[in-house]
Prior knowledge:
Order of helices and strands: HHHHHHHHH
Oligomer: single chain
Strand content: under 5%
CATH architecture: Orthogonal Bundle
Number of helices: 9
Amino acid sequence: MSLLESAEAFARAKNADIDFCKSIAFRLKSIGVNDEQILCCAFLCYANSSFDEIHARFGREIATVVTSISKDFSLPRQRQEEQYIKQLQDAPWESILIKLCEISATLKILKDSELSKTKRGKILKQNIHHLNVLKKKISENKDKTPGIERLLDGANETLIHFKQRPINF
């Protein structure tokens, strides 16, 4: 079994939304990311596992990337978001790419969803906030990943669809 297949099987066993994970991995590939370890992280970020569990199975590098963009659900809700924003600000570029692809996938789902206007608005607001947190790092590093422009354009098109101001990267 390949590393990627192993990550997908692990995520499936942890009840992760495999279709969503595949959507993130597809977006990573579409912007030129072919590193198997990074693609694995697209599945493992949603496996609700500890650093130690991922480290034991997939190694330190993958565990570090995964935990840098995973919320710590053991914290109180308000503290979770504060800690998560700090993690995003300190995350390595590979993690930022995964998070950006996750936001892109989420925005696509929102655009096509039948969620209530209130629920859609809440999810949209949170993703806009995360994009703004990542904006500086994306602007500084986007030349490293040439395909990223299409992803950013797609995110902005969705923001415009929801009558939100596009983000200038």
